[in-house]
Write a structure and sequence with these properties.
Largest sheet: 4 strands, mixed
CATH topology: Glutaredoxin
Number of helices: 5
CATH superfamily: Glutaredoxin
Structural class: alpha+beta
Order of helices and strands: HHEHEHEEH
Number of domains: 1
Helix content: 55-70%
Distance between the termini: 48 Å
Shape: globular
Radius of gyration: 16 Å
Oligomer: single chain
CATH class: Alpha Beta
C-alpha cells in the first residue's frame, strides 16, 4: 500500500511540476528597483544567506517569489536531488524540511529558519 501512495504522489509531482514552475515564472512580480549602492549593500548582506529548497515545493515557490520581489541575491540549494545539500541541511538544521533559510552571522554562527511564512516575514522585515 505504501508503494502505491509513493508511486501516485511521485507521478503527480512529475506531471504537475512543470506547470507549477511555469506558473511561478509567469506569476512572479518584478523585483524592487533600488539605487546601485543600496542594492550592492543588500547583495553583500545576502551572501550569508542560503535557501535549501525543492524545485516544485509550493512553499519553496512562495519563498522564491518573495526573494525575487525584494530583489535579493540569495543562493539556492537543491535539497531534493543533491545529497551533499541534503546532508548539510540535516546536519546543520537538524531535519530535512524545506524551505529552510540558513543565515550566518558575523561570528560565523548559523541560524536555521524553517516555515515559508516565517522566512518571508524575516526577509520582509530585514529588507523592505
Amino acid at each position: 500500500m505504501k508503494f502505491i501512495f509513493r508511486t501516485f504522489f511521485r507521478t503527480l509531482r512529475i506531471v504537475l511540476g512543470p506547470f507549477m514552475l511555469l506558473w511561478e515564472m509567469i506569476n512572479t512580480p518584478k523585483g524592487v528597483v533600488r539605487a546601485p549602492e543600496v542594492q550592492a549593500k543588500i547583495d553583500q548582506q545576502c551572501k550569508t544567506f542560503v535557501l535549501y529548497q525543492f524545485k516544485t515545493c509550493p512553499f519553496c515557490i512562495k519563498v522564491r517569489r518573495t526573494i525575487k520581489t525584494l530583489s535579493l541575491n540569495i543562493a539556492l540549494r537543491d535539497a531534493q536531488h543533491d545529497e551533499k545539500n541534503r546532508a548539510d541541511l540535516l546536519q546543520g538544521g537538524g531535519q530535512i524540511k524545506v524551505p529552510c533559510l540558513r543565515v550566518s552571522d558575523a561570528q560565523g554562527k548559523d541560524h536555521w529558519i524553517y516555515e515559508s511564512a516565517v522566512i518571508n516575514q524575516y526577509l520582509r522585515q530585514r529588507f523592505s
